[in-house]
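Annotated sample (chain length 226).
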Amino acid sequence: MTAPSATIQPELGQGIYSIPDAATILNMPVSKVRRWVNKYWELEFLRDDDPYTWGKQREKAFHFLTLIEIIAVDSFHEIGVSFPKIKLAHAKLTEILDTKYPFAHAELMTDGKRIFHKYLDESLLEVDEKQQFSFTQLVVPYCQKIDFQDKSQLAERFWPLGKDHEIVVDPHHSFGQPVIKGTNTTVETIYSMLNAGESPEFVASIYDLNLNAVEDVMLFMKRNAA
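Output written by the structure step:
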């Protein structure tokens, strides 16, 4: 994974991601994430005082909550909601949920259909009942991979292969790069050894990991190479 070019250093617990990082973690094409991020900046979802969004063109970078918001915005876009309407929904939910990152909030991610019925003018979506249900269907598989904080209800960790696997994206570990759960050992470290010809058994032994963790690294990288 790549390190974004930036003149500031991220604080611990926020995470730092380039566009290729996000594409790898979310299993999306880089071109798709880049187009979405350009829209994200263009529509100014993020505040000027947010210290974890910076850069231009291919050097844009962002933190963990932005990474999670990509999921919701992409899901809205997939069912045909326009970006101006996404921006309006984001602005209204920012006030209602009292957070700059409402699309990373448990209440939206667990039931996007209900939150629109409860809080917002349904004309914001301008989609029929089937399409609103499709949004929930698109988000739920991702939501099941997210841990939310009890107090703020914001996303706290992301499990790219699912919670029954060993790889986790946690902004409190290794600046949010994918790691083996319970460790600071990055996926990139393990994969580089495997790619150099070391056996999974050997790599597992020297890093004191179970073999399932090493196999998950291979699965994670193979998924992104497909």
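Annotation: Residues 59 and 89 are 28 Å apart (CA to CA).
Annotation: The beta strands are 17-18, 61-62, 146-148, 155-158, 167-168, 179-180.
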